[in-house]
Amino acid sequence: MANEAAQHNGHGTLETPAGVVRDLLGRHNQTSTLYWRAVAALGVLFVLGIIGFVMRMSDGVSDRAVWGYYAATFAFIITTAQAAPMVAIAPRLAKAHWRRPISRAAELWSITGLVSLLLFIPMLWILPSLEDGRRSLWFFDPNDTGDFANVPVNSPHIWATAAILGLVVTGIALLWVSSLPDLAAMRDNLTGWRQRWDGRLAFGWRGTSQQWNMLYHRMGILGAFYFMMLVFVHFLISVDFLMVLVPGWIDALYPATHAANALQAATATMLLTMFFLRQFGGYKDYIGLDQFWALGKLMFALSLLWFWFWFSSFIVLWYGKKPSEQAAIELLMVGPYLPVFFAAFIMVFVVPLFTMIWNPLRKSIWGPTIIATSVLIGTFFDRVRMYVSAYSVPGIGESIIDKHALELEAVEKMDAVMPGVADIFIIVGAISGVILTYMLASRIIPVMNVWEQRELLLYRFHKRLHRTEVMVLGKKD
To answer: By the 8 A CB rule, do 457 and 17 touch?
Structure first.
């Protein structure tokens, strides 16, 4: 028993390449009863989401206000799950060793882009085309005739669809390329249907020098493209599916704010993912304090960045004091959605600020996990604040709302739109569907990067220093 304990403390099996492969593949092949119970529960909740969507579709898409929570849920998913791969991409470019145990877990979130892509399809029908009198920040119609010359009336829809499709394809390609050595290892060590399936996905991987060079270069290229596409998607969604719905709300910084918020939410998503993998997935030997400490510091910095982006936009609108800008502040912050704004502000900024400054709390397992939960809940409230309020603004011809300026009196008469049964079903079902997709994908591709753990052994060795033993880490280049 003592020898077995020593092996799992890092001085036996886990110190040899063969031992790492055998241990991680063994964990990947083990499926507990708790896992299948969680899958079944998430499946039931996902079905409820489908029921909620059918209930919402029965009301049609003409009333945009009832689709506000649907849009907020979609925005929340692309802000959290689809941004999570950045936790693997950015530290990998910085050649940080601490991210190795969680890099695959972060990349695996890219597969959930398939769910967000399905959720995006109804958004195309909810958002009217330019010929229906919808406002646009891309084109200028000086005579308000609705004639945009030779511009395709569905141009924003086409660009946003192409962008989010490119993001999903790039993310799946990045996941597949980084998994090639592990798929080949499962092909060579497993039997039955897994061996046949992994053999097809491994695509003839043999581990030659040419293949390894290809792997490193393509991972770098795909990672850079994923970051660019993520920013581009947030840019288009925040403009065409949010800002244009509020007349007079012109904020050149908000698209960047939308994307920057995703980095904070991605860090919080990965902190929760690490916690569940460590507590329930059996990866305590790999995911330790270093990972929580590193991401905790990053989340603290991104929380400060959240405040900087919010205040930079707020001060411009507040100081300008144009009627349309005052109406935008009334709608988004101090009007009917003031409680939601307070909840988002406290959970996303105040809680991380006054907790993560304490090093003992930040350098722990439970501390960053609880704060990450607060950040994710606050992020959802923030998306509700923005999207539900914007979708509740009447369109052209539906009221006294002007095409180019939102009237303050009209906002003061508006009430906050509360979620109905269908909205609750959609929110719970969509988030459950994302987690369900992640869990099912983890049965095909190992959630722990096997080849990176093996590679770590080449850069790590223990050295005697006075009366203790320290671990020395080298850099790849």
So the answer is: yes
Is 24 among the domain residues? no
- Tell me what pLDDT residue 272 has: 96
SS3 state of residue 463: strand
Neighbours of 155 (CB within 10 A): 16
**pLDDT band at residue 12 using 50, 70 and 90 as cut-offs:** very low
Of how many residues is the chain composed? 477
Higher pLDDT, 72 or 151: 72
- Measured from the Cβ of residue 101, the count of other Cβ atoms closer than 10 Å reads 23
SS3 464: strand
What is the tally of structural domains in the chain? Answer: 1
List, in order, residues 6 or more apart from 411 with CB less than 8 Å away.
Answer: 327, 330, 331, 335, 336
Cα–Cα separations (whole angstroms), residue 289 to 3, 91, 450, 468: 24, 17, 20, 20
454 within 8 A of 17, measured Cβ to Cβ: yes
Cα(106)–Cα(88) distance, rounded to whole angstroms? Answer: 6
* The token pair that represents 211 in the structure block: 């293949």
Dihedral over Cα of 325, 329, 335, 336: its sign: positive
Helix axes 155-189, 209-240, angle to 10 degrees: 150
**How many Å apart are CA 111 and CA 95, to the nearest integer?**
24
Give the pLDDT band of residue 369 (cuts 50, 70, 90).
Answer: very high
Is the residue at 299 inside a domain?
Answer: yes
Q: What is the identity of the amino acid at 58? A: S
Name the 3-class secondary structure at 460: strand
Q: Is residue 117 exposed (0-12), middle (13-18) or buried (19+ Cβ within 10 Å)?
A: middle
Segment holding 193, helix H or strand E: helix 193-202
User: Could you tell me what percentage of the chain is helix, strand and coil, using 3-state DSSP and rounding each to the nearest 5?
Assistant: 70, 5, 25
Residue 12 domain-assigned (yes or no): no
- d(CA 38, CA 454) in angstroms, rounded, equals 31
* Structure tokens, 160: 């946003």
| Sole residue written with tokens 């991104």 | 302
In terms of residue numbers, what domain contains 338? Answer: 32-473
In a domain, 101, yes or no: yes
Distance of CA 139 to the CA centre of its chain: 30
Amino acid letter for position 68: G
What span, in angstroms and rounded, lies between the C-alpha atoms of 11 and 5? 9
CA distance linking residue 71 with residue 431, whole number of Å: 13
